[in-house]
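Side project, low priority. Logging it here so it doesn't get lost.
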Amino acid sequence: MSNSKFIFLQFTMILLISFLLNTDSAVARRRKKPSSSPSENSDFNNGTDARVNEPAYPSLNAFPNNRGTENEFPSVETGSDFYDGVTAQRRLKSGIEDNYLVSPKKQLSAALDLVRQGQYQPAAVSLYNLSRRSEFANDRQQIKYILGLMLMEMKMPQVAAFQFVEVLRMGDSKYSKQAIEKLSLAADILGDETILNYAVSKVNVDDFPNSEKDMLYFRMGEIALKTGQSAKAAQLFSKVPPGSPFYNRALFSRGIAYMEGKQLDSALKNYKLLYSLRRKASPIDTNKVAAQLGIARVLYQKQDWDAAIEAYSLIPRDHPYWHDAFFEQSWAMFRGARFRSAISNFQSLHSTYYEDFYIPESLLLRSIVYLYICKYDEMEKVLNMYDRIYGPISYRIKNFLADYSDLEVFYNDIEKAIFYRQSDRLPYGGALPYIVHRRIMEEGDTKRSLSYLQKLFDEKARIEQNPNLRASSLGGIGVRILNGRIRNTKIAIGEIVRAHLLNMQVELKDFTEQASFIRYEMLNGKKESIKKRIAGKNVGSDQIDEKIDRDFFVKNGFEYYPFQGEYWLDEIGNFHYLGKQSCE
């Protein structure tokens, strides 16, 4: 926490303590018998205890119910001030949660003193217990908000988000705006779209502190981009100022928004700006590589094939983006009629180093290139490879979708692929091929959800590895909250996996139909070739790119030798096809 934020928190706490110490309302309320049932009290919602009820996140019932009764927290005789506030602090620090021999006012005072002293864990444990007691019903919103702040300091953003949502559900107050702000920050840390959308739907930008508006504009831009509002998204991303930790990501996302809005010149200018800002960074700096990839994609969209090919070639081979860039470059080569270069790329793309990559389209493109140069035998080999790899995959996806509807099954299967990837390739036991799950794991929505799930696991481990916290009621409800979120996030990931499998099923069906048409063209081409041979015409006497001979490659640092099926990692991306074309 920065000094300015800590001073602001101290100042807020001082005001709150002053307010509470100058009123005996808490004591008076404890003595007075409640005059209404829970369902009639404004602190309750639909007959359910508002202190412990689950927040109404859109589309997700994430949190377990933790209904308690007032009998769990015995009344405190306000006149029994046997212990003073200092003794209360000592008992709280030592892990004693319910100090029944100290007046409620002094218990709260002691808890707030712990807050001011930076004793976040004992303060949080005490505040949670006090928030559940009837004596503090009117102060519950304040206590919950401060509890959320303590949990944020303890690196427990999910449990903190629960507290902020409860503050919002209790109705409008001076703490509602602050709770929205902190909920937005928690959602940003977690990266969960459900909480983020909930927070953004309630936020007023004008009420948000200037120091945090960059995050808000970026997240609002992401939501707009996802919903197809490219112009609005670009406008929101442009409000993220230079110097913000979100600036580079906002620049990249603004480029995507421009491209979706067909503003290619603006997109190109945007990506060049991002690249210039990162020009001194490492060659494999992700922002730098992403900017270069963005430039290449814009040039491709502008149909400037030669410039796009050159831009793609600047993506470093040891970066994860290289494989996608190399395949996209092959398309640019094909569109630019540079068939030899395209086939050279396919030699690398279809090597054993990338046997786990799901790229059915690349095989069809390779077969089309062979069709253009009348290499029907090579074309048939590629089509047979497509049938051998993707025929069984299509069949297994179809059967898996037909056999299972439980979303947990979909999650459990991709979880096996995750363990397989993280365990140095121990035996893989998934129902679907690893190549399928690997593709799904690389999708943006899957990545975000898996990242969020990992943060939930980390937060739960943080509680369970802290014996004092785990033994407290706060630790108990924290684990229950996290278990509920983990369970629902797994179901959400299962739904994402199922959606991608449905798309892959449709995609493979379409690709298989295209493969059939390409095979028909291959057979037709073979027939025409045979007719020409019978007619005595000379077929296949010229090389592709005949003007460039082998000496050209030797003079430029290449070695010439026939490929015999063995791949070396340092050769990937450096193959050059020197075969002959067979068209008249």
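Brief comment: The two ends are 74 Å apart (CA to CA).
Revisit when time allows.
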